[in-house]
Write a structure and sequence with these properties.
The protein is built from 14 helices and eleven strands. It is an alpha/beta fold. The chain folds into two domains: 232 residues, 3-Layer(aba) Sandwich (Aspartate Aminotransferase, domain 2), CATH 3.40.640.10; 96 residues, Aspartate Aminotransferase, domain 1 (Alpha-Beta Complex). A seven-stranded mixed β-sheet has the order 1-7-6-5-4-2-3, sandwiched between helices. A four-stranded antiparallel β-sheet has the order 8-9-11-10, with helices on one face. A hairpin with a 2-residue loop joins β10 and β11. α13 crosses α14. The chain starts with a helix and ends with a helix.
Length: 333
């Protein structure tokens, strides 16, 4: 990947275009089945651009209550686009927002309540443990959005993983969305970069918004080359990440009374029993050389990736399981 970056053909993407960036945009637009795509430094900027472009100030965006756009983009939808989040909590038995959940949260028209201007989905869903939505599920959400005159933006940072997990063509997964964001710095292993795809008109508007947000890049072919390398060489390895995540989950599940959310993809959420804190588990694991994330006070997150082979994942899972047992014993003293 670094060799590809060092040898990338570059131009000036702010002025007359960068040839490697153009190749990446055209390649991914074709993969997603969209007319045009635009390269961004981050997925967050691409998400915020979509909300700015599709939403309207003084309205609300309907979105899964646990979505990345709600919790991990520092209230950008309010601070930048001036829209209000209308969180949609998944119903009983569902990890992510369904079409029925969405329909139940659309407000009746009223001069006293905010109207909606946008629906957002996330696939795979980070907060739900990498849950992958199927084409049928996404089409059902799209149908509810369309019935209410609302465009649909997809945070598809891990859409590559969703395609592997569901067996669906990635263009079919992207088709229900007005705009879709994909990331290159997650499972594909690039150091930076994301892309927003949609209609020609939407991408022309997005170009101006990206500029407004400070996202114009000059010799960005150096970064696009890394994304292209990831697409060509790392995409087929995602299935191994998913397999290793299942192996990690099997070792950790039940340790010290913890329970895992069965992983669809490469994210393993571990729910802790009463008496255990995520910060303690994370700290003790780090002391033994394993980096995991505290997701909440009682949940930790582990993610498999291309730099962690079978032996590394098994060792990490064994250490985390031992830490969980140790913490459980300590909590009973």
């Amino acid at each position: 990947m670094r060799e590809a970056m060092a040898s990338a053909e570059v131009g000036d993407d702010v002025l007359d275009g960068d040839p490697t960036v153009r190749r990446l945009e055209e390649t991914v637009a074709a993969l997603l089945g969209k007319p045009r795509a635009l390269f961004f430094p981050t997925g967050t900027m691409a998400n915020q651009t979509a909300v700015w472009m599709l939403g309207r100030r003084g309205t609300e965006v309907l979105i899964d209550a646990n979505a990345h756009l709600v919790h991990w983009e520092v209230a950008g939808v309010a601070g930048l686009a001036g829209v209000q989040v209308r969180p949609v909590s998944p119903g009983a038995g569902s990890l992510v927002m369904t079409a029925a959940d969405l329909a139940a949260h659309v407000r009746p028209r009223s001069p006293h309540a905010p109207s909606a201007s946008l629906v957002c989905v996330e696939n795979t869903h980070n907060g739900a443990g990498g849950k992958a939505s199927t084409v049928a599920e996404l089409e059902a959400v799209r149908d509810v959005a369309q019935a209410n005159g609302l465009p649909l933006h997809m945070d598809g940072a891990r859409l590559w993983n969703a395609a592997v997990a569901t067996g669906a063509d990635i263009a079919s997964l992207a088709a229900p969305a007005t705009t879709v964001m994909v990331s290159f710095s997650k499972g594909l292993g690039a150091p930076v970069g994301a892309l927003l795809a949609g209609s020609e008109e939407a991408m022309a508007d997005s170009w101006a918004t990206r500029k407004r947000f400070g996202g114009g890049m000059r010799q960005s072919g150096i970064l696009a080359a890394a994304a292209l390398h990831g697409l060509e060489h790392h995409r087929q390895l995602l299935i191994e990440d998913h397999r290793r995540a299942r192996g990690f989950a099997n070792i950790v599940d039940g340790a010290g009374g913890a329970r895992v959310v069965s992983p669809d993809t490469n994210i393993v959420m571990v729910d802790l029993p009463d008496g255990l804190s995520s910060s303690d588990v994370v700290s003790r694991s780090l002391d033994r050389g394993v980096r995991i994330t505290p997701w909440s006070l009682t949940r930790i997150r582990a993610v498999t990736h291309l730099d962690a082979d079978d032996a590394a994942v098994e060792r990490a899972a064994t250490i985390v399981a031992e830490v969980l047992h140790d913490c459980a014993r300590a909590s009973r003293v």
